[in-house]
Each structure stands twice: as C-alpha cells, then as structure tokens.
Amino acid sequence: MMLETRVGDTRGAASTCSSSSSSSSSSSSSSSSRRQDGAGGLWDSVKKAAVVIGSGILFLAAFGNSLTWHLQRFWGASGDFWQDLWTQLHVTFEGHHTTLFYLGTMLIPTLAFWGTNALLLLVDTTGKPAFITRYRIQVDKNNPVDKVKLIHAVKTVMFNHVFISGPMVVVAFYLMTWRGDPCGPELPTFHRALMELAFFSISEEIIFYYSHRLFHHPSLYKRFHKQHHEWTAPIGLVSIYAHPLEHMISNMGPVALGPVILGSHMTTTCMWYCLALISTTISHCGYHLPFLPSPEFHDFHHLRFNQCFGVFGVLDRLHGTDAKFRQTKQYERHLLLTSLTPLNESIPDTPKKGH
C-alpha cells in the first residue's frame, strides 16, 4: 500500500478506494458473520431443546417399558384395595364432592407441608440432633436460625396459604369441573396417573423458570421478589415465603395449572400438590441429606441470585443460566448422597490463598 502511494497520486487514490472497498467488504462480512453467529446460536438452542425433549421422551419410553411394568403389577395387585377405599370415601361424601375435593387438595397437602417443615424447624431452632446439622450446606448460617426472622416468615407463609393458595384451589376446582368430574367414582389408571405427573413436572419447569426470571427483572425484583431473597441461606419454610403476587404467579401458578389443563382426578391432583410442596421444601431446607434430592442447585440461587432459576435445571442449561454454578464446588456436590459422610467433607471447599 505504501509503495503504491509513492509511485503516484492516481494509484494512491485507487489504492485508497480499494482499501475503502475492502474495509466496507470486511464490515459487511463481519456483519454477515454476526448474523450467521446469531442464527447459529438460535439453531444451537433449538438443537439443545430437541436433545432435551428427545431424551425425555426416550427416558419416559424406557421407564414405561421397564420399571412401570413392575409397578403396574403392584398396582394391579393392590388396585382393588385402592378402588374399594376410594369408593367408600366417594359414597361417604355423596352430594358433597366439593368438600371432598377441598379436603384432598387443601388439607392433605397442608399437613404434608407443615409436617415436613415441623421436623426441619426443630433442627433449625435447636441445632439438634447434631447428626443432621452436619449436613448443613452453608455451614456458618442459621446456627441457630434468627427467631425474629423466623416468626415473620411463619406469618407470611400462613397468610399465603390461607388468602392466596386457598382461593386459587377454589378457582381450580370450578375450572376442572368444566372438564368433567374431578371426584369421579373411578380412579385413574396407573399409566394415566404417571403420564399426568410427568406433564405436571414439565409444565412446572417451564412456567416456573420464566416467571421466576421475570421476577428477577430489576423493575420487579426490588418491589416483589427481594422479599424471598432476604434469606440468602434458606430454610424449608422459606419455600413459600414470598410477596403475595409472586406466590400467586410463580409458586402456585406452575403447580396448579397442570391439573386444570388435563382435568385431572382429585387423587392425582392431591398427590401432585403434596409432591410439589415437599420437593420445594427440600430445595430450600439448607441440608443436603442422604438419599434425598440435592438442594445444592436452589441453595446456590439464594446465595448468588442470578443463577439456577428453574426446578430441574433443564432450562438453565439451555439458556446458560447455570454457567457459574457449574464452575463451583456446589455443582460437584449436586448429586444424590448415598453415604453418611456429608458432601462438604468428602468434597471440601478449595482452600483460600494464604491458608
């Protein structure tokens, strides 16, 4: 280029024009490359979604052809017993199926939630038995739990139970009656119940992930979701310690919508509500206990706020919102503990420099 400008202005001008053209071409090429990268990123997301969904379908197919065969035999052998029990209950509440529905979808799940949390609160407030506190995830927190914060959390949780969850279950009942009789005389088949529980889990993951991320938007976080994150080291009860609007949209909505969509039987709905409440309690409990699902994923969310938004982590992996989590010791500990040795002992934190 410099040699050409020394020869003459004409060639220099031509070279400058050529350089400008080259620069324009390079810019156009870069823009095209960015568009291709954007398209490639979208295509990668689509492929990841296909892999996730396809894997799930294959898993359910394998599950349906192996384990469910054995469970089906048990269900078949005991099916008459459960059907007879339900028939007696159904006849007892003849003409009062609304009451039967509310008992099954309000009373039983509430007892499951408070029964589980009563045991955890005993440990949180007394620090005993000591063999359980060994499994605390954030070792230096809630030892014991702050009683003033706890009392405030209990009041909020009770308010949400009575004034948010209760009315939403009433609305769910009337919506489900449009689809059929949620307290029908026939129990759902085993495979029908299993299919519905799988659908509930998938719909909860999708609705909770996106509604949860929405509440982390700066315009909503400070006003609504920050209340839930007052507990950077959560306990089981905090699972539904939230602003009423958040509890309605992001806690109850993802759980209640599935049975409404499918018009599920009351027994399946009751089972799902109990599983959802116990599952979220375990996710918030602060203890990584043997033979229970790992709470490391959601505990890390409370610790860092901007990671791990979902329930199962499928959408977090798809959207990359677990990238920092996967670089931590918490991720290494995010597994089913099958021994009695706490994971913070078998997988200790990396020593800090100078120690």
Briefly say what this structure is.
This protein is mainly α and 355 residues long. The chain is built from 14 helices and no strands.
- Major pleated sheet: none
Q: What is the rounded Rg?
A: 27 Å
Number of helices: 14
Q: Tally the beta strands.
A: 0
Structural class: mainly alpha
Write down the overall mean pLDDT: 84
Which secondary structure elements does this structure contain, and how are they paired or packed?
Blueprint: H1 2-7, H2 9-65, H3 67-92, H4 97-126, H5 130-133, H6 147-179, H7 190-215, H8 218-221, H9 244-262, H10 266-284, H11 296-304, H12 314-319, H13 329-332, H14 343-346
Question: Any overview of this molecule?
Answer:
With 355 residues, the protein is mostly helical. The chain contains 14 helices and no strands. α4 packs parallel to α10 (266-284) and α6 runs parallel beside α9. It starts with a helix and ends in a 9-residue tail after the last helix. The model is unreliable at 1-42 (pLDDT under 50).
